[in-house]
Amino acid sequence: MFVGLLGSFEVRLGDRPVTPSAPKLRTVLALLALSADSVVHLDQLVEELWEHNPPGSPSTTLQTYVYQLRKLLAGAYGPVEDTLPNGVTLLTRSQGYEFRLSKDSVVDVQTFETLLERGRRALDGGRTEEAAQLLRDALGQWRGPAFGGITTGPVLSARATHLEESRKSALELRFEADLALGRHRRVVDELAGVVKAQPTHEGFSAKLMTALYRCGRRVEALEVFQRLRSEFVAQLGLEPSLTLNALHQSVLTDDPALVLPASTVRIAAVPAQPEPEPEPAPQARPIAPVTRLPLPAPEGTIAQIPPATFHFVGRHNELALLTELIGAAATDDRHGLRMAEVTGPPGVGKSTLVVTAAHHVRRSFPDGQVFVDLRPVNDGAESLHEVLAGALRSAGVPLRPGQVTAAEIAYSFRSWSAERRVLVVADDVMSIGQLDGIRPSGPGSAMLVTSRRRLHCPGAVSAIELAPLSISEGVQLLQAVLGEARVREEREHAAELVGLCLRLPLVISAIGGRLAYRRRWTLARMRYRLAADPGVLLRVRTGGATLRDTLVGNYWTLTAQQRAAFLAVAAQDEDFVDERVLAELLATDTMDAEELLEALADSYLLEEVMDLVYGSTTRYRITKPLRLIAAEVLRPARGCQSEPVLQSGFSPSSQARASLVDDSDEAVVDHGPAGRSLTG
Question: What pLDDT shows up at residue 301?
Answer without folding.
Answer: 60
